[in-house]
Structures are given as C-alpha cells and as structure tokens.
Amino acid sequence: MTGTNRVKLKPGDTIGILGGGQLGRMLAMAAARLGLRCQVFSPDPDSPAFDVVLNATCAEYADVEALELFAGDVDVITYEFENVPSAAAMVLDARRPVLPNRKILETTQDRLAEKDFVTRLGIGTAAYADVTSVASLREAILRIGLPAVLKTRRFGYDGKGQAIIRDGDDIAKVWTSLGTKSAILEAFVPFEREISVIAARAADGQVECFDVTENEHRDHILKISRAPAPIPDDLAEEALRIAGQIATALDYVGVLAVEMFVLANGTGPKVLVNEIAPRVHNSGHWTLDGASVSQFEQHIRAIAGWPLGKPVRHGEVTMTNLIGDEITRYEEWLTVPGATVHIYGKGTPKPGRKMGHVTEVIRPNGK
Amino acid sequence: MTGTNRVKLKPGDTIGILGGGQLGRMLAMAAARLGLRCQVFSPDPDSPAFDVVLNATCAEYADVEALELFAGDVDVITYEFENVPSAAAMVLDARRPVLPNRKILETTQDRLAEKDFVTRLGIGTAAYADVTSVASLREAILRIGLPAVLKTRRFGYDGKGQAIIRDGDDIAKVWTSLGTKSAILEAFVPFEREISVIAARAADGQVECFDVTENEHRDHILKISRAPAPIPDDLAEEALRIAGQIATALDYVGVLAVEMFVLANGTGPKVLVNEIAPRVHNSGHWTLDGASVSQFEQHIRAIAGWPLGKPVRHGEVTMTNLIGDEITRYEEWLTVPGATVHIYGKGTPKPGRKMGHVTEVIRPNGK
Questions:
Q1: Which of A355, B49, B152, B316 is the most exposed place for a label (fewest CB within 10 A)?
Q2: B180-203: per-residue pLDDT in tens?
Q3: What SS3 state is found at A74?
Q4: Domain total of chain A
Q5: DSSP secondary structure string, B146-177?
Q6: Spatial separation of the C-alpha atoms in residues A68 and A99, rounded to whole Å
Q7: H or E element: which one contains A303?
C-alpha cells in the first residue's frame, strides 16, 4: 500500500485544488455536496473557482512558500489541468498526497510519451513520429504520408500548438511557425466520429466508466457531446475496455478522459486513442445533470478514498458548450423545457473561451 | 412596477442570503451554477453555507452595522428561514431589495395570521381557534373537539412548540407547559397522507410548480419524500392550483412550499392546507437530482429577475433524510446504484438534526 492509497477523508476535511477555472469550480461544488471543503490555488485573482470556496490562495505556481502554506491547509491535493508545473507538484507531493500521482503527468504532458505508453499497451493510435527538426519532419512525412498533423509535444489545447500539413505545403515554413524543437507528427485519421470515455478509478483498483460520449468539435473546440454515443455495442465495449486498461496501467486514482476516433470501414482496429486527459473533462460535463453521480463527484470520491458511485444515466443526454459571445444568450436557454444551464462566472467573453454549458436530457420513452 | 420588480441581476452579481444552514448552502450552490455570487449572513461561525461562498458575514441579526455593511456588498437579499427578525428585515429592506417581500413574513411567521389568510382565499384548513388563555383553550376545545393540536403561533418547527390534546388530558397543565400566551388550537385531521407543493413565482407573475410530493414524517421530522405523490390527477391538480393561488395572493417572488393534508373519504374538501413555508423546503430537495431545474435554482432565478425554468422530472424520485447518527452510514449510501448523496457539512450529528439526504431516481421504464 502506497502513501496515496492511505488517503481516507471524512466529511469536513479539505481538498486542495490546483487551478481555478470552471473545472476546479465544478470539482469544488461536487466536493461541497459530499460535505468536503475545498481550497483553491490559482495565480489568477479572477478565478471562477474562488467564488465557491471559503479559502483561496492566489499565488504563482512558482511561489514555493505559498505552495507550502497551501499544502499545510489541506488534506489531499488534486488539480484541474494537466500542465501543472512539475516543480510545484514536487513541492506539494513532499507535504501532502497529490492525486492523481504526479508521475502520471510526465506521461500525459508529453504527446510522444503518451502515444508510446498507449502503444506499449497494445492499443491503437494514429501513426506518429517524433519530430525535432525540419529534416526529421521530412522523414516523418515520407513514412506517415499526408495529410498529417504536426503538434507540439507539450502544452497544446483546443487546437493550439498544432498545424495540418497538406500536399504542397511549405514544410520548412510550417516547422518554423510551430516554434518548438519538440513535436510529433500524427497521421490524419479519416474518422467517422470522435468519442470519449470518462473513467474513474479508485485507489483499490475499482473502475467505473460513464457511457461512451460522442463529441463534435468546431474550430478545434468541443461544441456538443452526446451520451450514449450512437455506436454499436461492441465498439462501445471496446472503448470502455481501453479506458479501463489505461487507467489501470497508470495506477490512476481519480477521473481521466480518453479521447478516441472511431474509424469508418477498414480491416484494422476500429477505435484509435487520440489523447488522454488526466482530469475531469469537458466531454463529461453531461454527467452533472444527466446522471445520478457526476464525473466531478467520482473524481472527488476517488481522491478522498471513498467508494466510487454507480452512476445511472437519466436518459439521452446532450451537452452544448456556450463559447465566447454565445453566453450572452443565456436567457434563451433558461426557458428551454428540461434544459439545465451552467454559467462559469468568468467575466468578459472572449472568442473561443468556454463560458458555460447547457445540458438537455431526453427520456427515450417520451416526457 | 414596484422596486422589487425591478431586480434584474446579471452573471457576476451578488446575492445576500440570510441564514447559513443547509438551505442557504444549497441556494448558494444553485446560484453559483448560474454564474451568480453569494454572500451569507449568519451568527453561527460553523454555518455550513460559509464553506461554499467566498464572502461570509458572521454577526448577530441584531447587529445593525453588520447588516448595513452586508447590504452594501450585495445586489439583492433573500433568506433561508421564515423567522427572520422583522427589525433585521427592515434595516436591509431600506438598502436593498429583500425577496420574498418581508411583509409576507408577517403572515407566515404567525400560524393564526396564516390560517386566516388561507381561509380568506376560500381554501380549506383544519378547524382552528385563537387561544390566549386556559379559558379560551377550554372554549376552543368545546368548539373544535378532541383530539386537537395546540401550537404556539410563532417559532415552531419540526414538532417543537406543539402538543396533542386528547380526551382526559389536564388542559391547564398542557397550556402551562406550552409557555406562551399566543397559541392556536387546530382540529386533529384524520388525513390519508401528507403532501406538499413547491411553487416558484417570478416578479412578472409566472408560476411554475414542481410535481406534488408525498411526505412521510417520523417524530415530527420529514423522513421521506416521494414525487410524484401517488394521488389521483384531480387531487394533484387541486393541490397545484392551491399553491399557485397562495403564491399569487401573496404577490410572492421566489419559492414557497405549501404543506397539505389529503383527507380520506368524506364529503368536504379533500385537500386541506397545513402550513406555508416562505422559502425552499426539505420536501423539495428531490428536485436537486430528480429534475432538470431544482427548487433552489428556481428561487435564485425568481429573486434575480430571471425567467423561471421549465423543470422536467427524471423519473420517480425518492428523497430520504439522513437524520442525526444516520449520517455516519453515508458510505453505505455512496455505493447504492443511482443514489445521489448530499452531506451538509454540519459537524457533529445531534438527535433530530438534519445532516444530509439521499435522492434516488427510478425510471419507470426500467434502467
């Protein structure tokens, strides 16, 4: 039994959350429902998560003293984003259990390490190659073909830090514009649809997955999720199996999301892993209103050392992100029968910024 | 258009909540989901609602300076309990809109005024009489008969401040033990079941009721609520109509609960009003997980000047209160498939204290 396996909170104990965005906010609200307190650490004084906790720490992730004080205030520490600086994670980990384990971040912060990890598990991914120079990019293109996607190995999100390369593109120019020496080239996958699985794993190895979700992106940003995904049962089982296998192989404690592609016709694998997010995930927001236990609550239960829930879905669920100016139309959503509206308290809308979301549950048998 | 009708909050605005118990806590969490901030005012430093808001005011309700500062911090004020001291309400009302209107408290804080109000609307109640002395108690008994229930006019809850009088009881002794000169005698109603309606009313007059709930009490404390109540449609419609009529007659803004008795066979009215609670109510807790919009959110929307939601129920819902030591068994509830567990963060359990609740949703068509 490791140290982290021994975490066992009781109501009234305090969870430290790194990151003050909407994910941290919804984690804190899920914890509150279970009688657990949260303290949020974020460098941004306008952090939406600050609004829902009594104690907040506004400091930089490089501020060792602030990190130490924060650790002293809490019983266990978790995070809402995968790009936690490893130095900060080390400082915290020396003082309090950090869950999921910070070593997992080393795998999931790096697209190459992540792909290698998935491949070693015998799980399919798009063909990929390590790229460190324009020369190695040309080699990779020869092997993988075009079109292909060039991505920074680290710190990409919502389509940032990536470029599609097509026949005839100026390879040297694309390479320069990415502005890194550490990239990965991925084959362009002719997918039929994008899906994800939100899996929760407890310290004792129990795994509970939510139903497979179908995701629609616009401009590289998630726009709509639907659960259950309209895919055949065997594909859904395969996707759930993959997510469970990954969570177990990482000895993961908490919630993770595995984004996958479903391929159209073909003879190879039908499901390819695209990305692992070691945290609660936008494609799991439907669970807040569409299931008896949400992804946020499962994460809190796992890191608290509590048993995972057995979520029951309330019907066919659709989650729509309110992005940028779309939030200004919240009043229209408020009156849609059966709709549940979430506004993240983020202040001024900016293009591409996730400002809120709406969940709609449709009972297959009518009302 | 009155002053209170002009309240129109925008995301980021702040709601002041008087009272820091579980109702205030759940109101604050509902507001947070809509991007609204809350500040809680409570004299109890251990108030559970303090945990879920960034700003809390810990002061006595008689502390005029604290009330004024609090009012200055918020955009609208509401309360989680009906026994708000009228002096405090006046101080606040002079500075910010207080919703529901404080004049409503004058009716609902007094069982006699409340019964008179309901009767004037032509709605049935148990027979009742004003009692101010042992002599008037004897007169009232002659008129109403026994058994009957003697209640203080003010500040009773969960069976406190009341006594059943049966044939042969020592009337003078019962009167003395109640310790008041301001009481009401109510006929004992041979009810078949207890129900309640949670009604929300917006400033523009829109009324939205949740489905009628059946309530089971143990030791005068709500133990289980079930929605929808298993009663004939015409009775349910009558109950909903009564709740709407009361909300409208009070020019109410916010959520109120109307507790009613359903009578067994007889020729008179089949539904009698027992009590009005000018606030969110324990019998509406099922709406948090059993409907697309909860009673807490409806209340917040109403006092924010936002349109009410059109709640859709997710199935047949049961809410079970966790009272006193029952909270210690929360881990058993955590693993019940489909159950949603709420722990109020109240610290040490005391007998009769509401510590949490569990919601279970059953889809009539199976899973």
A1: B316
A2: 889 999 999 889 999 999 999 999
A3: coil
A4: 3
A5: SSEEEEESSS--TTTTEEEE-TT--HHHHHHH
A6: 17
A7: helix A295-304
Q: What secondary structure letter does DSSP report for B81?
A: S
Alpha-carbon distance of A49 to A19, in angstroms, equals: 8
Q: Point out the domain boundary residue: A98, A119, A141.
A: A98
Q: Beta A14-18 vs A76-79: how paired, if at all?
A: parallel
Contact assignment for B347 to A292 by CB distance below 8 Å:
no
Whether A183 and A280 share a structural domain: no
Instruction: Answer whether A53 sits within 8 Å of B50, measured CB to CB.
Output: no
DSSP code of residue A201: E
DSSP state, residue B126: -
Other Cβ atoms closer than 10 A to A136: 15
B305: DSSP letter: T
Indicate if the pLDDT at residue B367 is higher than 60. Answer: no
Q: Do B233 and B353 share a domain, yes or no? A: yes
pLDDT at B366: 47
Same domain, B294 and B175: no
Residue type, A17: I
Do A174 and A198 lie in a common domain? no
Please give the residue of chain A at the shortest CA–CA distance from B33: A342
A/B interface, count of CB pairs below 8 Å: 146
Q: Work out the minimum CA distance from A360 to partner chain B, whole angstroms.
A: 8
Query: Which letter does DSSP use for residue A219 in this model?
Result: T
Tokens of A341: 């509206």
User: Which residue has 């909540």 as its token pair?
Assistant: B17
Residue A92 DSSP class: H
Residues B290-316: pLDDT tens digits?
Answer: 999 999 999 999 999 999 999 999 999
Q: Are residues A182 and A263 in the same domain?
A: no
- Which chain A residues are Cβ-neighbours of B356 within 8 angstroms? 35
- Shared-domain flag, residues A15 and A158: no
How close is the nearest chain B Cα to the Cα of A135, in Å?
A: 50
Q: Which of B187, B211, B229 is the last residue of a domain?
A: B187
Q: Dig out the tokens for A178 from the structure.
A: 């990415």
- Helices (DSSP H) in chain B: which residue ranges? 22-33, 64-73, 86-93, 102-108, 111-120, 134-144, 171-178, 233-249, 287-290, 295-304, 330-334
